[in-house]
Protein backbone atom coordinates (compact mmCIF):
# COMPACT_ATOMS: atom_id res chain seq x y z
CA UNK A 1 0.00 0.00 0.00
CA UNK A 2 1.11 3.51 -0.66
CA UNK A 3 0.23 6.24 1.80
CA UNK A 4 0.17 8.99 -0.75
CA UNK A 5 0.25 12.67 -0.07
CA UNK A 6 -3.53 13.06 0.07
CA UNK A 7 -3.71 10.60 2.93
CA UNK A 8 -1.14 12.67 4.77
CA UNK A 9 -2.88 15.95 4.05
CA UNK A 10 -6.39 14.84 5.01
CA UNK A 11 -5.11 13.15 8.17
CA UNK A 12 -3.25 16.29 9.16
CA UNK A 13 -6.28 18.52 8.61
CA UNK A 14 -8.56 16.30 10.67
CA UNK A 15 -6.06 16.01 13.50
CA UNK A 16 -5.47 19.75 13.37
CA UNK A 17 -9.17 20.52 13.92
CA UNK A 18 -9.27 18.32 17.00
CA UNK A 19 -5.91 19.56 18.22
CA UNK A 20 -6.91 23.19 17.95
CA UNK A 21 -9.88 22.60 20.25
CA UNK A 22 -7.61 21.14 22.90
CA UNK A 23 -4.85 23.69 22.47
CA UNK A 24 -7.13 26.68 22.95
CA UNK A 25 -8.24 25.22 26.27
CA UNK A 26 -4.70 24.48 27.37
CA UNK A 27 -3.00 27.64 26.13
CA UNK A 28 -5.85 30.16 26.13
CA UNK A 29 -7.73 31.26 23.07
CA UNK A 30 -5.68 34.31 22.04
CA UNK A 31 -2.37 32.73 22.92
CA UNK A 32 -3.24 29.61 20.96
CA UNK A 33 -4.24 31.71 17.98
CA UNK A 34 -0.94 33.57 18.22
CA UNK A 35 0.89 30.27 18.57
CA UNK A 36 -0.83 28.90 15.48
CA UNK A 37 -0.23 31.95 13.28
CA UNK A 38 3.33 32.30 14.56
CA UNK A 39 4.12 28.61 14.04
CA UNK A 40 2.67 28.57 10.54
CA UNK A 41 4.56 31.70 9.48
CA UNK A 42 7.78 30.65 11.18
CA UNK A 43 7.83 27.19 9.64
CA UNK A 44 6.66 28.60 6.32
CA UNK A 45 9.62 30.96 6.21
CA UNK A 46 12.10 28.20 6.98
CA UNK A 47 10.55 25.66 4.60
CA UNK A 48 10.22 28.20 1.81
CA UNK A 49 13.93 28.95 2.04
CA UNK A 50 14.63 25.20 2.06
CA UNK A 51 12.51 24.70 -1.07
CA UNK A 52 14.01 27.72 -2.81
CA UNK A 53 17.50 26.45 -1.99
CA UNK A 54 16.72 23.03 -3.47
CA UNK A 55 17.17 21.32 -0.12
CA UNK A 56 13.60 20.14 0.17
CA UNK A 57 10.83 19.51 -2.31
CA UNK A 58 7.12 18.91 -2.08
CA UNK A 59 6.51 18.38 -5.80
CA UNK A 60 7.13 14.70 -6.37
CA UNK A 61 3.50 14.01 -7.24
CA UNK A 62 3.37 16.83 -9.79
CA UNK A 63 5.93 15.22 -12.07
CA UNK A 64 5.01 13.48 -15.32
CA UNK A 65 1.58 12.03 -15.70
CA UNK A 66 1.12 11.98 -11.97
CA UNK A 67 0.06 15.55 -12.46
CA UNK A 68 -3.12 14.28 -14.09
CA UNK A 69 -3.93 12.24 -11.02
CA UNK A 70 -2.54 14.58 -8.41
CA UNK A 71 -2.68 18.15 -9.67
CA UNK A 72 -1.09 20.89 -7.57
CA UNK A 73 1.70 18.56 -6.63
CA UNK A 74 -0.62 16.26 -4.79
CA UNK A 75 -1.34 18.70 -2.02
CA UNK A 76 -4.60 20.60 -2.09
CA UNK A 77 -3.77 23.72 -0.10
CA UNK A 78 -0.51 25.54 -0.65
CA UNK A 79 1.10 28.53 1.02
CA UNK A 80 3.40 29.56 -1.78
CA UNK A 81 5.79 26.68 -2.33
CA UNK A 82 4.97 24.91 0.91
CA UNK A 83 1.81 22.89 1.57
CA UNK A 84 -0.37 24.04 4.43
CA UNK A 85 -0.38 20.51 5.84
CA UNK A 86 3.38 20.64 6.43
CA UNK A 87 3.11 23.85 8.44
CA UNK A 88 0.10 22.56 10.39
CA UNK A 89 2.03 19.42 11.21
CA UNK A 90 4.82 21.61 12.53
CA UNK A 91 2.30 23.52 14.65
CA UNK A 92 0.87 20.31 16.11
CA UNK A 93 4.31 18.94 16.92
CA UNK A 94 5.59 22.23 18.35
CA UNK A 95 2.53 22.88 20.50
CA UNK A 96 2.61 19.32 21.82
CA UNK A 97 6.30 19.62 22.62
CA UNK A 98 5.78 23.00 24.29
CA UNK A 99 2.91 21.70 26.44
CA UNK A 100 4.91 18.60 27.34
CA UNK A 101 7.82 20.69 28.52
CA UNK A 102 5.72 23.25 30.42
CA UNK A 103 3.64 20.54 32.10
CA UNK A 104 6.51 18.31 33.09
CA UNK A 105 8.99 20.97 34.23
CA UNK A 106 6.99 24.14 34.89
CA UNK A 107 9.50 25.67 37.32
CA UNK A 108 12.65 25.27 35.26
CA UNK A 109 14.37 27.97 33.27
CA UNK A 110 12.80 28.97 29.95
CA UNK A 111 15.72 27.76 27.87
CA UNK A 112 15.61 24.36 29.58
CA UNK A 113 11.90 24.03 28.82
CA UNK A 114 12.53 25.06 25.23
CA UNK A 115 15.35 22.54 24.92
CA UNK A 116 13.07 19.77 26.20
CA UNK A 117 10.40 20.90 23.74
CA UNK A 118 12.97 20.74 20.94
CA UNK A 119 14.02 17.24 21.96
CA UNK A 120 10.41 16.01 22.00
CA UNK A 121 9.86 17.50 18.55
CA UNK A 122 12.95 15.70 17.26
CA UNK A 123 11.54 12.38 18.48
CA UNK A 124 8.31 13.18 16.65
CA UNK A 125 10.12 13.95 13.43
CA UNK A 126 12.29 10.85 13.76
CA UNK A 127 9.02 8.95 13.43
CA UNK A 128 7.53 11.15 10.72
CA UNK A 129 10.52 11.64 8.41
CA UNK A 130 11.09 8.04 7.25
CA UNK A 131 7.39 7.75 6.37
CA UNK A 132 7.50 11.09 4.59
CA UNK A 133 10.55 10.37 2.45
CA UNK A 134 9.35 6.86 1.62
CA UNK A 135 5.96 8.09 0.45
CA UNK A 136 7.35 11.29 -1.10
CA UNK A 137 5.32 13.66 1.07
CA UNK A 138 8.51 15.61 0.78
CA UNK A 139 11.96 14.84 -0.59
CA UNK A 140 15.34 15.84 0.76
CA UNK A 141 18.03 16.61 -1.73
CA UNK A 142 21.06 18.14 -0.12
CA UNK A 143 24.63 17.03 0.18
CA UNK A 144 24.66 16.02 3.79
CA UNK A 145 25.01 13.20 6.25
CA UNK A 146 21.98 10.93 6.07
CA UNK A 147 20.65 8.45 8.55
CA UNK A 148 17.97 6.14 7.12
CA UNK A 149 17.59 8.51 4.18
CA UNK A 150 16.82 11.45 6.44
CA UNK A 151 19.47 14.16 6.62
CA UNK A 152 20.65 14.75 10.16
CA UNK A 153 20.53 18.40 9.25
CA UNK A 154 16.72 18.26 9.21
CA UNK A 155 16.58 16.92 12.77
CA UNK A 156 19.09 19.51 13.93
CA UNK A 157 16.98 22.16 12.25
CA UNK A 158 13.79 20.88 13.87
CA UNK A 159 15.44 21.11 17.28
CA UNK A 160 16.65 24.64 16.65
CA UNK A 161 13.40 25.88 15.17
CA UNK A 162 11.24 24.45 17.95
CA UNK A 163 13.67 25.65 20.60
CA UNK A 164 13.67 29.20 19.25
CA UNK A 165 9.95 29.39 18.61
CA UNK A 166 8.87 28.08 22.01
CA UNK A 167 11.46 30.25 23.73
CA UNK A 168 10.20 33.39 21.99
CA UNK A 169 6.59 32.46 22.61
CA UNK A 170 7.15 31.87 26.29
CA UNK A 171 9.29 34.95 26.66
CA UNK A 172 6.87 37.30 24.91
CA UNK A 173 3.30 36.13 25.35
CA UNK A 174 3.44 34.12 28.57
CA UNK A 175 6.16 35.58 30.79
CA UNK A 176 6.05 38.96 29.00
CA UNK A 177 9.66 39.73 29.84
CA UNK A 178 12.23 42.02 28.26
CA UNK A 179 15.63 40.36 28.32
CA UNK A 180 18.60 42.68 28.26
CA UNK A 181 20.03 41.29 25.05
CA UNK A 182 16.83 42.17 23.21
CA UNK A 183 15.91 45.39 24.96
CA UNK A 184 18.55 47.49 23.27
CA UNK A 185 17.62 46.20 19.83
CA UNK A 186 13.89 46.61 20.40
CA UNK A 187 14.22 50.08 21.90
CA UNK A 188 16.14 51.30 18.90
CA UNK A 189 13.96 49.64 16.27
CA UNK A 190 10.49 48.31 16.97
CA UNK A 191 9.58 50.43 19.97
CA UNK A 192 10.86 53.59 18.35
CA UNK A 193 8.79 53.58 15.21
CA UNK A 194 5.91 51.12 14.80
CA UNK A 195 5.01 50.92 18.47
CA UNK A 196 6.16 54.39 19.51
CA UNK A 197 6.22 53.22 23.09
CA UNK A 198 9.09 52.50 25.41
CA UNK A 199 6.96 50.56 27.85
CA UNK A 200 7.91 47.12 29.06
CA UNK A 201 6.28 44.24 27.23
CA UNK A 202 4.07 43.37 30.17
CA UNK A 203 2.62 46.89 30.10
CA UNK A 204 1.75 46.82 26.43
CA UNK A 205 -1.63 45.96 25.00
CA UNK A 206 -2.26 42.53 23.53
CA UNK A 207 -2.00 43.88 20.01
CA UNK A 208 1.34 45.49 20.77
CA UNK A 209 2.54 42.30 22.40
CA UNK A 210 1.70 40.48 19.21
CA UNK A 211 3.83 42.95 17.30
CA UNK A 212 6.69 42.32 19.70
CA UNK A 213 6.16 38.58 19.20
CA UNK A 214 6.32 38.97 15.42
CA UNK A 215 9.47 41.06 15.68
CA UNK A 216 11.17 38.56 17.95
CA UNK A 217 10.21 35.71 15.64
CA UNK A 218 11.78 37.61 12.78
CA UNK A 219 14.96 38.07 14.79
CA UNK A 220 14.89 34.40 15.74
CA UNK A 221 14.86 33.50 12.04
CA UNK A 222 18.22 35.21 11.72
CA UNK A 223 19.41 33.39 14.83
CA UNK A 224 18.15 30.14 13.31
CA UNK A 225 20.14 30.78 10.14
CA UNK A 226 23.26 31.42 12.20
CA UNK A 227 22.61 28.25 14.20
CA UNK A 228 22.07 26.03 11.17
CA UNK A 229 24.96 27.33 9.07
CA UNK A 230 27.79 25.51 10.93
CA UNK A 231 25.81 22.25 10.84
CA UNK A 232 25.31 22.63 7.10
CA UNK A 233 29.07 22.98 6.71
CA UNK A 234 29.80 20.11 9.08
CA UNK A 235 27.40 17.67 7.44
CA UNK A 236 28.59 18.81 4.04
CA UNK A 237 32.11 17.82 5.03
CA UNK A 238 31.10 14.35 6.24
CA UNK A 239 28.34 13.82 3.71
CA UNK A 240 27.38 10.29 2.73
CA UNK A 241 25.01 11.37 -0.02
CA UNK A 242 25.51 14.01 -2.62
CA UNK A 243 23.18 16.57 -4.03
CA UNK A 244 21.33 14.96 -6.91
CA UNK A 245 20.92 17.40 -9.71
CA UNK A 246 17.31 18.31 -9.18
CA UNK A 247 14.76 19.81 -11.42
CA UNK A 248 11.87 19.73 -9.05
CA UNK B 1 -12.87 55.82 42.32
CA UNK B 2 -11.38 57.87 39.52
CA UNK B 3 -8.22 55.80 39.66
CA UNK B 4 -10.24 52.63 39.51
CA UNK B 5 -12.08 53.94 36.48
CA UNK B 6 -8.82 54.80 34.72
CA UNK B 7 -7.48 51.36 35.56
CA UNK B 8 -10.56 49.70 34.08
CA UNK B 9 -10.31 51.89 30.98
CA UNK B 10 -6.75 50.75 30.52
CA UNK B 11 -7.60 47.17 31.24
CA UNK B 12 -10.13 46.91 28.44
CA UNK B 13 -7.25 47.14 25.97
CA UNK B 14 -5.70 44.07 27.42
CA UNK B 15 -6.78 40.65 26.41
CA UNK B 16 -9.19 38.79 28.59
CA UNK B 17 -7.07 37.24 31.27
CA UNK B 18 -9.80 34.83 32.23
CA UNK B 19 -9.74 33.55 28.70
CA UNK B 20 -5.96 33.52 28.47
CA UNK B 21 -5.38 31.92 31.83
CA UNK B 22 -8.01 29.21 31.71
CA UNK B 23 -8.97 27.59 34.98
CA UNK B 24 -7.12 24.43 35.83
CA UNK B 25 -10.04 22.19 35.02
CA UNK B 26 -10.29 23.57 31.52
CA UNK B 27 -6.51 23.44 31.20
CA UNK B 28 -6.47 19.77 32.20
CA UNK B 29 -9.18 19.01 29.67
CA UNK B 30 -7.21 20.83 26.99
CA UNK B 31 -4.00 19.04 27.85
CA UNK B 32 -5.76 15.69 27.64
CA UNK B 33 -7.22 16.51 24.21
CA UNK B 34 -3.88 17.78 22.94
CA UNK B 35 -1.98 14.69 24.01
CA UNK B 36 -4.64 12.28 22.79
CA UNK B 37 -4.53 13.94 19.35
CA UNK B 38 -0.73 13.89 19.39
CA UNK B 39 -0.82 10.19 20.30
CA UNK B 40 -3.23 9.64 17.40
CA UNK B 41 -0.79 11.44 15.12
CA UNK B 42 2.02 9.19 16.32
CA UNK B 43 -0.21 6.14 15.87
CA UNK B 44 -1.14 7.27 12.37
CA UNK B 45 2.49 7.68 11.41
CA UNK B 46 3.32 4.33 12.93
CA UNK B 47 0.57 2.58 10.94
CA UNK B 48 1.45 4.38 7.71
CA UNK B 49 5.12 3.54 8.13
CA UNK B 50 4.26 -0.11 8.73
CA UNK B 51 2.19 -0.10 5.56
CA UNK B 52 5.03 1.59 3.68
CA UNK B 53 7.60 -0.97 4.73
CA UNK B 54 7.68 -2.59 1.32
CA UNK B 55 8.29 0.75 -0.36
CA UNK B 56 11.04 1.57 2.08
CA UNK B 57 12.77 -1.70 1.32
CA UNK B 58 13.61 -0.40 -2.15
CA UNK B 59 16.57 1.84 -1.64
CA UNK B 60 16.12 3.73 -4.89
CA UNK B 61 12.53 4.60 -4.15
CA UNK B 62 13.47 7.63 -2.10
CA UNK B 63 14.99 9.62 -4.91
CA UNK B 64 13.37 7.96 -7.86
CA UNK B 65 11.17 9.84 -10.25
CA UNK B 66 7.49 9.06 -10.10
CA UNK B 67 6.39 6.62 -12.76
CA UNK B 68 3.81 7.45 -15.32
CA UNK B 69 0.48 5.77 -14.93
CA UNK B 70 -0.34 2.79 -17.07
CA UNK B 71 -3.11 3.31 -19.56
CA UNK B 72 -5.98 0.83 -19.67
CA UNK B 73 -5.00 -0.29 -23.21
CA UNK B 74 -1.55 -1.38 -22.13
CA UNK B 75 -2.69 -3.18 -19.03
CA UNK B 76 -3.97 -6.19 -20.90
CA UNK B 77 -1.34 -6.33 -23.61
CA UNK B 78 1.96 -6.12 -21.86
CA UNK B 79 2.98 -9.52 -20.63
CA UNK B 80 4.40 -9.96 -17.21
CA UNK B 81 2.99 -6.76 -15.90
CA UNK B 82 0.47 -6.81 -13.16
CA UNK B 83 -2.00 -3.95 -13.43
CA UNK B 84 -1.93 -3.03 -9.80
CA UNK B 85 1.74 -3.40 -9.12
CA UNK B 86 3.28 -5.12 -6.22
CA UNK B 87 4.32 -3.29 -3.09
CA UNK B 88 7.57 -1.52 -3.54
CA UNK B 89 7.11 -1.30 -7.25
CA UNK B 90 5.48 1.21 -9.44
CA UNK B 91 3.00 1.22 -12.23
CA UNK B 92 4.62 0.88 -15.64
CA UNK B 93 4.89 3.63 -18.12
CA UNK B 94 1.96 4.39 -20.37
CA UNK B 95 2.35 4.40 -24.17
CA UNK B 96 1.55 8.06 -24.32
CA UNK B 97 4.22 8.96 -21.85
CA UNK B 98 6.90 6.35 -22.16
CA UNK B 99 10.19 7.87 -23.17
CA UNK B 100 8.68 10.15 -25.74
CA UNK B 101 8.74 7.59 -28.50
CA UNK B 102 6.11 7.72 -31.20
CA UNK B 103 3.15 5.46 -31.12
CA UNK B 104 1.81 3.66 -34.13
CA UNK B 105 -1.82 4.18 -35.07
CA UNK B 106 -2.64 0.81 -33.64
CA UNK B 107 -1.45 1.95 -30.29
CA UNK B 108 1.60 -0.29 -30.29
CA UNK B 109 4.63 1.00 -28.55
CA UNK B 110 7.84 1.82 -30.35
CA UNK B 111 9.97 1.73 -27.41
CA UNK B 112 13.52 1.33 -26.37
CA UNK B 113 13.56 -1.94 -24.53
CA UNK B 114 14.02 -1.71 -20.86
CA UNK B 115 16.31 -4.34 -19.53
CA UNK B 116 14.97 -6.22 -16.57
CA UNK B 117 18.30 -5.87 -14.81
CA UNK B 118 17.99 -2.14 -14.95
CA UNK B 119 15.73 -1.83 -11.99
CA UNK B 120 15.27 -5.00 -10.04
CA UNK B 121 12.60 -4.57 -7.51
CA UNK B 122 12.43 -1.04 -8.58
CA UNK B 123 10.37 1.28 -10.59
CA UNK B 124 9.20 1.32 -14.08
CA UNK B 125 10.63 4.60 -15.31
CA UNK B 126 13.30 2.70 -17.03
CA UNK B 127 16.79 4.00 -16.43
CA UNK B 128 18.35 4.21 -13.03
CA UNK B 129 18.96 7.52 -11.45
CA UNK B 130 22.66 7.90 -12.06
CA UNK B 131 22.26 6.65 -15.61
CA UNK B 132 19.71 9.32 -16.25
CA UNK B 133 22.01 11.87 -14.79
CA UNK B 134 24.98 10.65 -16.79
CA UNK B 135 22.87 11.00 -19.92
CA UNK B 136 22.42 14.62 -19.07
CA UNK B 137 18.77 14.24 -18.17
CA UNK B 138 17.66 16.61 -15.46
CA UNK B 139 16.48 14.72 -12.46
CA UNK B 140 12.96 15.97 -12.23
CA UNK B 141 12.33 16.40 -15.89
CA UNK B 142 9.47 14.80 -17.70
CA UNK B 143 10.25 11.44 -19.16
CA UNK B 144 9.12 12.00 -22.70
CA UNK B 145 10.99 14.83 -24.26
CA UNK B 146 14.20 14.45 -22.42
CA UNK B 147 14.70 10.76 -23.08
CA UNK B 148 13.97 11.36 -26.71
CA UNK B 149 16.65 13.99 -26.70
CA UNK B 150 19.09 11.55 -25.17
CA UNK B 151 18.21 8.89 -27.71
CA UNK B 152 19.11 11.08 -30.62
CA UNK B 153 22.50 11.68 -29.10
CA UNK B 154 23.43 8.01 -28.65
CA UNK B 155 24.17 5.90 -31.70
CA UNK B 156 23.12 2.69 -29.97
CA UNK B 157 19.59 3.82 -29.72
CA UNK B 158 19.49 4.85 -33.33
CA UNK B 159 20.54 1.42 -34.45
CA UNK B 160 17.61 -0.26 -32.80
CA UNK B 161 14.64 -1.05 -34.97
CA UNK B 162 11.90 1.46 -34.64
CA UNK B 163 9.11 -1.04 -34.46
CA UNK B 164 10.69 -3.30 -31.90
CA UNK B 165 8.14 -4.68 -29.50
CA UNK B 166 8.34 -3.50 -25.96
CA UNK B 167 10.23 -5.67 -23.61
CA UNK B 168 8.27 -6.60 -20.56
CA UNK B 169 9.25 -4.60 -17.59
CA UNK B 170 10.14 -6.69 -14.67
CA UNK B 171 8.14 -5.45 -11.80
CA UNK B 172 8.69 -8.34 -9.48
CA UNK B 173 10.35 -7.43 -6.29
CA UNK B 174 12.61 -10.36 -5.92
CA UNK B 175 15.18 -9.06 -3.52
CA UNK B 176 14.21 -6.03 -1.54
CA UNK B 177 17.50 -4.23 -1.42
CA UNK B 178 19.22 -3.22 -4.56
CA UNK B 179 21.66 -0.45 -4.15
CA UNK B 180 23.77 1.32 -6.69
CA UNK B 181 25.77 -1.79 -7.43
CA UNK B 182 22.75 -3.51 -8.94
CA UNK B 183 22.41 -1.45 -12.07
CA UNK B 184 25.14 -1.28 -14.67
CA UNK B 185 24.48 2.36 -15.34
CA UNK B 186 24.72 3.15 -11.72
CA UNK B 187 27.98 1.33 -11.34
CA UNK B 188 29.65 3.66 -13.73
CA UNK B 189 27.89 6.54 -12.06
CA UNK B 190 29.07 5.56 -8.64
CA UNK B 191 32.64 5.13 -9.88
CA UNK B 192 32.66 8.61 -11.21
CA UNK B 193 30.94 9.84 -8.09
CA UNK B 194 33.57 8.27 -5.86
CA UNK B 195 36.20 10.48 -7.34
CA UNK B 196 34.14 13.60 -6.85
CA UNK B 197 32.48 12.83 -3.55
CA UNK B 198 29.47 11.01 -2.22
CA UNK B 199 27.14 9.49 -4.79
CA UNK B 200 23.50 10.11 -5.27
CA UNK B 201 22.46 7.15 -3.15
CA UNK B 202 22.88 6.69 0.54
CA UNK B 203 24.90 3.79 1.84
CA UNK B 204 25.34 2.03 5.12
CA UNK B 205 23.69 3.79 8.02
CA UNK B 206 22.30 6.39 5.67
CA UNK B 207 20.22 3.91 3.74
CA UNK B 208 16.70 3.27 4.94
CA UNK B 209 16.51 -0.01 3.02
CA UNK B 210 19.40 -1.39 5.05
CA UNK B 211 17.41 -0.79 8.21
CA UNK B 212 14.25 -2.23 6.67
CA UNK B 213 16.03 -5.41 5.69
CA UNK B 214 18.21 -5.60 8.75
CA UNK B 215 17.49 -7.80 11.77
CA UNK B 216 15.75 -10.39 9.66
CA UNK B 217 13.59 -7.86 7.86
CA UNK B 218 12.30 -6.43 11.13
CA UNK B 219 14.77 -3.59 11.60
CA UNK B 220 12.52 -0.78 10.45
CA UNK B 221 9.55 -2.15 12.35
CA UNK B 222 11.59 -2.37 15.54
CA UNK B 223 12.87 1.16 15.02
CA UNK B 224 9.33 2.44 14.58
CA UNK B 225 8.02 0.44 17.50
CA UNK B 226 10.68 1.77 19.86
CA UNK B 227 10.05 5.34 18.75
CA UNK B 228 6.28 4.95 18.95
CA UNK B 229 6.36 3.50 22.46
CA UNK B 230 8.84 6.18 23.53
CA UNK B 231 6.58 8.88 22.20
CA UNK B 232 3.54 7.39 23.91
CA UNK B 233 5.42 7.40 27.21
CA UNK B 234 6.51 11.00 26.67
CA UNK B 235 2.92 12.00 25.90
CA UNK B 236 1.46 10.04 28.79
CA UNK B 237 3.63 11.67 31.46
CA UNK B 238 2.08 15.17 31.21
CA UNK B 239 -1.43 13.70 31.12
CA UNK B 240 -0.70 11.71 34.25
CA UNK B 241 0.69 14.77 35.96
CA UNK B 242 -2.35 16.85 35.01
CA UNK B 243 -4.71 14.14 36.27
CA UNK B 244 -2.84 13.84 39.55
CA UNK B 245 -3.09 17.57 40.01
CA UNK B 246 -6.83 17.35 39.42
CA UNK B 247 -7.26 14.53 41.92
CA UNK B 248 -5.21 16.22 44.60
CA UNK B 249 -7.56 19.21 44.44
Structural class of chain A: mainly alpha
| Rg on CA atoms of chain A, Å | 19 Å
3D shape of chain A:
globular
Task: Please give the alpha-carbon distance between the first and last residues of chain B.
Answer: 37 Å
* Major beta-sheet overview of chain A: 2 strands, antiparallel
Number of extended strands of chain B: 0
Spans where pLDDT lies below 50 across 5 or more residues of chain A? none
Number of domains of chain A: 1
Oligomer: heterodimer
When the domains of chain B are counted, the total is: 2
Describe this structure in words.
The complex is a heterodimer of chains A (248) and B (249). Chain A has one domain (5-237). Helices cover 65% and strands 5% of the residues of chain A. Chain A has helices spanning 5-27, 29-52, 66-69, 84-104, 110-135, 152-174, 180-188, 206-237; strands spanning 56-57, 78-79, 82-83, 139-140, 146-147, 150-151. The model of chain B is unreliable at 72-194 (pLDDT under 50). In chain B, helix 3 runs antiparallel to helix 11 and helix 10 (208-217) crosses helix 11 (219-248). Classes of the chains: A mainly alpha (248), B mainly alpha (249). At the A-B interface, helix 1, helix 2, helix 3, helix 4 and helix 5 of A face helix 3 and helix 11 of B.
Amino acid sequence: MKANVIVFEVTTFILFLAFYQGAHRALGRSRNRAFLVGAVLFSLAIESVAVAGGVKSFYWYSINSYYKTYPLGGYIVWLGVVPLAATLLWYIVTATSYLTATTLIPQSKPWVRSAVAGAVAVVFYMLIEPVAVTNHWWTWNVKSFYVIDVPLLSLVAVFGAVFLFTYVFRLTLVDMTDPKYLKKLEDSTLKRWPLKSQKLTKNLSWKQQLEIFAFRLFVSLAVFAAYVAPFVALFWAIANRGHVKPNW
Amino acid sequence: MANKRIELEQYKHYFDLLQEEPNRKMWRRGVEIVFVVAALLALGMFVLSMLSGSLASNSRNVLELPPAKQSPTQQGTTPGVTPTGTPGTEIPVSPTQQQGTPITPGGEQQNTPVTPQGSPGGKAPSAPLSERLSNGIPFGAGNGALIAQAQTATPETKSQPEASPPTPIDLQQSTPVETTSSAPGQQSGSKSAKSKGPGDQTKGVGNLANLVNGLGGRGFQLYLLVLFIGLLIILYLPVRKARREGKSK
